[in-house]
Structure formats: structure tokens, C-alpha cells
Design a protein that fits this description.
The structure is a single chain. The protein is an alpha/beta fold. It contains 11 helices and 8 strands. It has helices spanning 14-23, 30-40, 58-67, 80-89, 116-128, 141-150, 160-168, 171-190, 203-209, 222-228, 233-248, and strands spanning 8-12, 44-48, 72-76, 93-96, 132-137, 154-158, 194-198, 215-220. The protein has an 8-stranded parallel beta barrel, surrounded by 8 helices. The longest helix has 20 residues, at 171-190.
């Protein structure tokens, strides 16, 4: 539809590495998974290099940068170690996320407002070498306004609370979270930010959120890797791409 940007799909291949690491060795190879996802229609690949290296490794990041022909989005904590790795590796993008050793997965958005003094120079260091910087934040006006003030050109809205409420059948919470997302993405675009979204999305929720024209990229991983157990990774990527396209087609003129 004229005027509506293409909705990109970033496939997160972290949990291919989780399966590999359960036994050690090199199988299944997350780089092979990334290539299959790209061939099936992914617009880019996301990988989270955690401080404890629980899934993606430094070697995985180096190989992804060298071997894939689509943008690499490096998710990472805003630490000196990770900033240095990103500056050396030069991925297309770096998404700064909160990280706690005890968490199973990223449990919430980055508190950019509370860590503004620390984030400023780290965002500047990434941007200085041409890396597109994104902040993974809740759809909260304070966080969105802080991201804009810090000079981060992109935000990724944490959709976990909305997706979990949908999964739990809690309509009141889901509706409240959906309204917060809708208002947040509109504010972000008004402030000149590029808007992405991710965390907990499945086929149905991705189709729903695809109808928000302000969002230009969805990053999805755990669900796709889980579904691939029953079908295949290329099949899940294709079904997800179709769901996103159906949602995008509902955007009004």
C-alpha cells in the first residue's frame, strides 16, 4: 500500500545455539539456521551475545558477520565489554537491552531514563563507527522521550507483557497493554524515531501488530525455533512472513 513502509522480519537465532550448547559441539549450527531463515524470507538476523554466553558465542557473532548476506542485529547489554565487541565486529545494528544473570530471558525493557548518563557515551561510541543503535524499551512515554534525547535513532518496543496477557487469556491486561503500545509507537514516530517491536510474538500477535504502520521491523526468535521442531525453520519463517503480510494489508490509507 502506498505510503506504508515494508515490515521487516528479523529472525533471532539464539535458541538454535541453546540447543547446540545443551550437548556441546557445533550442531545445530546457528549460522546455518540464519542462512536458512534468510533464504525463507527473513530480512535480517538477530543474535544476543549475553555476558554469560549462555547461547550465542563470540565465534557465532564473527561467523554471522562474515557469512550472512543480510543485516546482523547484535543484541547486547550496554557494558564496556559489549560495546568494545560491537565496535570491533561492526554489525549493521546494535540493540541495547537490560540483562540480569538470573533471568531466563530478557524480562523487561531497558530503563533508559534511569541510566541516561551511562547510555549517552555508549550510544555515541556505536554511532561513531556507523552502527545503527536501538534501545529495547517499554512503550512508556518517559522511556521513548529519553531514547530520542539520547540520540538513539531506533527503539524496539518490548511486547512481552501484551503477548503474555494474550496467552493467559487476560483480556483486560491485554487491551491495556495494546493501547499502551499503540500510543507509544505514535509518540515515537512523532519524535522521529524508527520503531521496531519484539518479544513473545507468535503468528497471531505478529499479524495483529503488523497493522500498526509506525512499526517497520519485528524481531522474533523463540517461537519460530520452537515451531521449527514440528515443521522446519524455513517453514516457520514463511508462515510468519505471510502472517505479517496479512496484518500489514489491513493498514488503512
Amino acid at each position: 500500500m502506498p505510503g506504508v513502509p515494508h515490515l521487516r522480519l528479523g529472525v533471532n537465532i539464539d535458541h538454535v545455539a541453546t540447543i547446540r550448547n545443551a550437548r556441546g559441539g557445533r550442531h545445530p549450527d546457528p549460522v546455518r539456521a540464519a542462512k536458512l531463515a534468510i533464504h525463507a524470507g527473513a530480512d535480517g538476523i538477530t543474535a544476543h551475545l549475553r555476558e554469560d554466553r549462555r547461547h550465542i558465542s563470540d565465534d557465532d557473532i564473527a561467523r554471522l558477520k562474515a557469512e550472512i548476506d543480510k543485516p546482523l542485529n547484535l543484541e547486547m547489554a550496554a557494558t564496556t565489554e559489549m560495546i568494545d565487541i560491537a565496535v570491533r565486529t561492526r554489525p549493521h545494528a546494535a540493540c541495547l537491552v537490560p540483562e540480569r544473570r538470573a533471568e531466563r530471558t530478557t524480562e523487561g525493557g531497558l530503563d533508559a531514563a534511569a541510566t541516561r548518563a551511562e547510555l549517552g557515551p555508549r550510544i555515541a561510541a556505536l554511532r561513531a563507527v556507523g552502527i545503527r543503535v536501538s534501545l529495547f524499551i517499554a512503550a512508556d512515554p518517559k522511556q521513548i522521550e529519553t531514547a530520542a534525547a539520547l540520540g538513539a535513532p531506533v527503539i524496539e518496543i518490548h511486547t512481552g507483557a501484551w503477548c503474555h496477557a494474550l496467552s493467559d487469556g487476560d483480556k483486560a491486561v491485554a487491551d491495556a497493554e495494546w493501547q499502551r503500545i499503540r500510543e507509544g509507537v505514535k509518540l515515537a514516530r512523532q519524535l522521529g524515531l524508527e520503531v521496531h517491536a519484539g518479544h513473545g510474538l507468535d503468528y497471531a500477535s505478529a499479524e495483529t501488530i503488523a497493522a500498526l504502520p509506525e512499526i517497520v521491523e519485528l524481531n522474533i526468535g523463540h517461537f519460530l525455533v520452537g515451531e521449527a521442531v514440528f515443521t522446519s525453520l524455513p517453514a516457520t519463517v514463511k508462515v510468519m512472513r505471510a502472517a505479517m503480510d496479512r496484518g500489514r494489508a489491513r493498514v488503512g490509507p
